[in-house]
Input
Amino acid sequence: MTTFFDAWHFDGQSAVRRKVEIQAIGRQFYLLEPELRHGPFHFDELRFLEAKGDARVYGLAGKDGWRLGVRGHVPEDLAPLLPASKTYGGLIDRLGLGKASLVFAGISAAVVAVVLLSPQWLAPLIPSSVEAKLGNALVGDFGGRFCDTPQGKAALAKLTRSLDDNPKDLQVEIANIDMLNAVALPGGKVLLFQGLLDQAKSPDEVAGVLAHEIGHVRERHVMQGLLRQMGLAVVLGGFDGSGGSTLNSLLSTTYTRDSEREADDHSLKALKQANISPVGTADFFNRLASMDGSRDLKDRQARTMASYTSSHPLSDERRKLFEKAVVKGSAYKPALTSNEWRELKTMCAQDKDVKSGWGFDIE
Amino acid sequence: MTGHEGKAPSAVTFHGSWTDFAKIALPNVLLTLVTLGVYRFWATTRERQYLWAQTRFIDEPLEWTGRGMELFIGFIMVFFLLGLPLIVMQLVINGLVFQGQPIIAGVIIFAMFLAIFYLTGLAYFRALRYRLSRTYWRGIRGGSDDQGFTYGWSYIWKNVVAAISLYLLYPWASMSLWNERWSKMSFGPYQFESNADWKALMKRYLLFYLVPFLIFVGAVALGIAAASSGEGGDPFSTAGGVAGAVAIFIGILGLYIVMPLAALLYYSKFMRVAIGALRLGDLEFDFTARSPDWILFWLANLAILMIAYGFAFAPFSLLIATDPTQFVQQMEAGESILSVGLVIGVLIAIIPIAFATSIIRYRSWKFFVVHTEAFGEVNLDRMTQSTTDSSSHGEGLLDAFDVGAI
Output
């Protein structure tokens, strides 16, 4: 044995530390104590465990707690028989940290790109029957909260017809819930909440909002958004804490904002085709803007930050968009007659057996 | 802080340095980032290998033999067995509520709540078992023959009892759970014994429990003083207004400073009593950190996090400051604001925060080791290998619920 070399051994049976010498015989070795010989063991079964300073510790495959430690300058005949040291293990050691990071970054970027872009292609491949089933499973008849009177329904159907060439595969409903909102759901379902009708000043406003939601259906945003959300949740799920969810919302809201833009464009086109004035919708966004505060965001930086965090474009921007679309001197006609408008607005109040609210209250 | 100030040398010592640890933590952060978080299981393993190897019990270092792959498999298992069903159940519940079946939905929600409660208890148990089974000292490891299924039920009923007593019995619940958990663990041939007395915690606990009431009473008293001395007019220009402002100030002070402080006082006592009651064969343990140690420890952690957040937000401010008008224009035009710069900004922001949290993990381990003492004798011949099963799937459950082991 050469200069400074030290070997120790734990047999995994007891905690006794044994100072040993390594006796190599071909691919096998013994561990020698003054009056005891351990082995034979196979070099092939040695596993590198850890390095600390100039010491290295090896385990033996299949032997729980078995350890061989060596410190100092390993004799030349022994060195090639011991397994190589590892820092990270596997692929990263082979490529080096820098190269491995680049490879991983490339793979990650590709995966994220697929998750973000593929829903555009995947969503149209989902059969509409599956989408309709999903829509039904999610909402059903909304717990009997859809309002129904013959006159009100007729007014709603007329409004839908004027905004869409193919209203048969749409299901537009008024939900008896006091909420200023409207949603598009899988399977061509569009829900307008009663709260929206209550505060609407004209049928033109409702037409703009309805056309916007129909836009979501026609552009197939609903399934796209669902697929994208699920994909991002899976891909970024590996991140700990808030990092993943921040990235997730940043990436997905950008897409929802784009979708909202497309739906607004669709709405403008539909209004134009139906010869309905966009002024009403602009008014609606004006009221919304004073509620969400975006009209008062004078500071540009604050505006920018607000736009990052919201899933929709700012209401104030949308108001401007609809205002700009107004053609002066154009002979717009109202979306509904005043009679139809009254029937639509009061449909929920007239419907005797419609349920209201969220259903948690005891009736 | 190495604990050699004139006293007998401690049986448990820490020999690491944070600069050495940083050489592990920084590549960990980089690799975690470029793998979208997947690497973090291997990162945890490398961190622990270092921390364990720098911790000596008597004369030999500890050894961490856990592997990144088993943590990863645990995470995947939990994702498919628990995460996906939960997402599906959420959709089902939504559907049921919308379809006017709130009662069935309520029953399902309650069942899910119970299941998650049970699994949280199970996760605590399994995590401790996993960590002991991967901790070696002189080639000997720990573990448990118990699967932790009964512990899951104990976790539910003891917490329910605590809740029924308006949490007055919380110290009893947490201490008896500690005893139950540790009594089922072993190291080598020896079973851990733990019979910590929860009553020793009550004084500190009542302090914590009563602080909100005291603050409330103080605020109300000041408020009354304010009302009686204020003689109409602008309330904030009178003496009464000042007293009112003081009352609000005290309320805020109480909420953000006194409450966490009271909680820390309790936790400090808990750890001393709990670890002080732990035995393993002829070994007894002690935990020497007192409240001021804890307070300094947390303040330093807080400072590290604040600095990290400062670094995290710097690139954003730069990004917006460089060209604010461009962003506004894009936004006003309704264009996509998703820019490479923005995404890179978020990714870069993760670096200082992830690094700071791993430094805090280093500090926590060091704090724990430095303040742990052990007394008694270890007979090395009798310290034989553990015969417990060692589970192969890491601490996925624990990971899923985001809870710690001790």
Remarks:
- Chain B has two domains: 12-191+283-384, 197-276.
- Chain B touches chain A through 63 residues (CB under 8 Å).
- Confidence is low (pLDDT under 50) at residues 1-6, 402-406 of chain B.
